[in-house]
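Lab channel / #folding
Pinned by the channel admin:
"Please post every new chain as: sequence first, then the structure tokens as a reply. Keep commentary short and put observations after the output so the thread stays searchable."

First post following the new format, from NK:
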Amino acid sequence: MNHILAISDAASLELHATMLLARSPANELVSTHALADELEVSEAHLSKVLHQLLRAGLLWARRGPRGGFRLGRSPEDITLLDVFEVIEGPLPTTHCLLGRPRCDGQSCVLGGLLETIQETVRSYLSSTRLSRFRDGRPSFTSGAALHLLPSMEVSL
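Reply from TO:
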């Protein structure tokens, strides 16, 4: 069966780390150690994720004892979808639980549920900018119970 939504540990780390960086004062560098402590995760694993974001241009870094990371662009210019796709690649579109291309969707046991879920997730990720996290966690305007937790997986 196909997964409707699967967020890997690495994607969860990058989403949470960028949220913390968005909450930091502008141009303040935050060390990998400080981020790992805050997120209670492995510093080595987080470092790999942060370097992928750096290569993608979403972060800026300075090495050394006073080094660290900050956002590479304004938090208003970075969406959760931008961050998510660095690790996960393009958000997949699934029209059939069985993964069959011949399914027309008309006789699906779930009706339009898969399409609705995918549209809701894509809409939320693409419309939520990191600036929204400055004052805390944003509310979910869609009413969906979407939470960015490690290894979140919803499958049917």
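NK: The CA atoms of residues 93 and 119 lie 9 Å apart.
TO: also worth noting, The chain has one domain: 3-139.
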